[in-house]
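Why does residue order matter? Because the sequence determines the fold. Keep that principle in mind as you read this record.
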Amino acid sequence: MIVIPRIVSVSGVREWSDGTIHLFNDYLVTEEPLEIRIGATPVSVTMRTPGNDLELAVGFLYTEGIISSRSQIALVYAEADDSQNGANRVRVDLVSNCPLDPESMRRNFYAASSCGVCGKASIDSVRSRRLRSLPVDWIIAPETLCLLPDRLRSAQKIFEKTGALHAVGLFSLDGQLLVLREDVGRHNAVDKIVGWALAGDRVPLHNTVLMVSGRAGFEVVQKAIAAGIPLLASVSAPSDLAVNLAREFGMTLLGFLRGRRFVIYSGAERLAQADSLSADSQPVV
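Structure:
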């Protein structure tokens, strides 16, 4: 039986407006736990919006450094569980000779939809996730980047109904949308895109740009670096930890990308005309 994920639900609500209360039906985005397993071993439980769960599981295992390539995966499938929808568990079977780092498997955790895994355990694990410095082998025009927010928003399907989902879009260097994923958690949407890319043998994603709604936090930056994405842009601000990580691994990190304005936090060398800044105008690091 094919289970169709329930992405939105309808709920009766009351709205107060200028002293008047009226009733109407509102759309709510679905948030449910997904258990990710390697074989019979639980690895993580993440709160996510149902849909593209196989991509999410595979992308998560890759960006967390538990697997390093698609060739290590033998089979990925949804397992029945005790939930009402019966599809809140994904099992990933690896090939028999796949080496697993016991330290990477030690990080069994619950990931909240808001920020993924936060704190010291997550920060210390960065060094074991096979992160590599990103190559600088192309330059992109700022005008192309300014097109991305509108293209990302116009491609969002569920947000228009609920207003509650984050979107992440992967773009080509000429600004064409390659794939978009929505989720209550930005980090989940990034993992879904990485899982999509792994399925098509597209990783590392050196010739792409990632655009995220909301802020660019540490988890989003490290997952993008793990996938080999050299430029990450967001419509809001990054955290200081995210900026430091981007600078360390040579990522171009942009914030407040809205209209014809954005802030360059790192990696200005990938932007056309960025070298025209005078020495006096360089930011203090």
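The chain has two domains: 32-128, 142-281.
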